[in-house]
Amino acid sequence: MQDKTHLVDEITGHRRMRRNRKADWTRRLVQENRLTVDDLIWPIFLIPGTGVVDPIPAMPGVNRMTVDKAVEAAKEAADLGIPAIATFPNIEMHLRDETGSNSLEANNLINQTTAAIKKAVPNVGIITDVALDPFTSHGHDGILRGAEIVNDETVDQICRAAVMQADAGADIIAPSEMMDGRIGAIRRALDAAGHQSVGLMSYATKFASGFYGPYREAISTGGLLKGDKNSYYINPANGTEAVRDAAMDVEEGADMLMVKPGLPYLDICWRLKEAFGLPTFAYQVSGEYTQIKAAAMNGWIDGERVMMETLLCFKRAGCDGILTYFAPEVARILAKR
Fold first, then answer.
1. Is 42 helix (H, G, I), strand (E, B) or coil?
2. How many CB atoms lie within 10 A of CB 167?
3. Residue 272: CB partners within 8 Å, gap ≥ 6?
4. Domains (range + CATH), the chain
5. Packing angle between helix 182-192 and helix 239-252, nearest 10 degrees?
6. Which residues cross the membrane (predicted)?
7. In Å, what is the CA distance from 253 to each residue of 62, 104, 181?
8. From the first residue on, what is the mean pLDDT of each consecutive set of 10 residues in the chain (337 residues)?
């Protein structure tokens, strides 16, 4: 028999990587990671009123919505199989003050929405944030005293807000304000109020990023912000510090960890999953969403392909799920496959 060994066989030691790529069925057979609807969390924006769906110019395809429309969105999520939604309020300016006191109103916009959704669509998970930036007149995530965001007073307030959110029916509290000690303090407050079953998804590594711009437009805080958030968000240059921050949250009782933003910090996703083994999530933030949408609208990229590729990359980096504004669009695509 004629020896058909090729030079390439000798070079590779008869190991050819393309064997497993030669056909669609082999590629499917050996695929390591898959994106499913179970991986999706849908962030939505809330506004006061009734019957209003308000498009956000900087986030094409994303809207602010009143409570009744948020209930409709939750029903849509349930129909699509999306496990959970995350809510973010855009309250009236006259309700915002130096301390974010409206966060402590039991019937504020975020709690009204939670209660309404839980009544209408009880099988959809609701994730709420206790950061104060939607409620403050200065746009910071905590209480501003002089030029300082005060840590301990802010923690006291967000603990009270977290209990109220749990009272309204929130399933998971996801504190994003990055104050020291907040996870342990919220856990104790929830347990003392009888909310042992309410989970904590820690924004374990929230970076001082330039990718948040459209979000700040969505909740109307961009024009309010005094200074920056560098004294409490993590420096984008610091990976080891981020892991240390997450480790403290794990010790304090976090049930899940989140990395925010997402795609620029895939290394952090991987490091947290490897280090702690907790359910790990990434937030594909507004700037990431808008980049893809804008490029697609200009015909510069295949928007659907890039959207799906980025979400799959989060899975490859160890994430158990992704908070993404693409959630309903992706769920519809996955349902057709």
1. strand
2. 16
3. 204, 205, 243, 246, 257, 259, 278, 280, 318
4. 40-335 (3.20.20.70)
5. 20
6. none
7. 33, 23, 11
8. 93 94 95 97 98 96 98 98 98 96 98 98 97 95 94 98 98 97 98 98 96 92 88 97 98 98 98 98 98 98 98 98 98 95
Residue 95 in contact with residue 102, Cβ under 8 Å?
yes
**Tokens at residue 253, please?**
């009782």
Q: Establish how many alpha carbons lie within 13 A of residue 329's alpha carbon, considering only the half-sphere containing its beta carbon.
A: 16
Model pLDDT, residue 122: 97
Q: For position 1, what pLDDT does the model report?
A: 85
Distance CA 284, CA 260 (A): 7
Q: Is 260 a catalytic residue?
A: yes
Question: ω before 328 within 30° of 0 (cis)?
Answer: no
Q: Is the dihedral of CA 87, 93, 98, 102 positive or negative?
A: negative
277: which 2 tokens? 């083994």
Beta strands in the chain (DSSP E): 40-46, 53-55, 63-65, 84-89, 125-128, 143-145, 148-150, 172-173, 199-206, 256-260, 280-284, 321-324
Q: Specify whether 69 is catalytic.
A: no
Q: Is residue 206 a contact partner of residue 233, using CB atoms and an 8 Å limit? A: yes
Residue 140 confidence (pLDDT):
95
Q: Which of 206, 229, 293, 315 is catalytic?
A: 206
φ, ψ for residue 336, nearest 5 deg: -90, -10
Contact between 95 and 135 (Cβ < 8 Å): yes
Q: Which residues share a beta bridge with 322?
A: 40, 282
Q: How many CB atoms lie within 10 A of CB 318?
A: 19
- Please list, in sequence order, all residues whose beta carbon lies within 8 angstroms of the beta carbon of residue 332, skipping any fewer than 6 positions away: 80
Mean confidence (pLDDT) of the chain: 96
Q: Which of 69, 260, 273, 293 is catalytic?
A: 260
Residues pairing with 206 in the sheet: 260
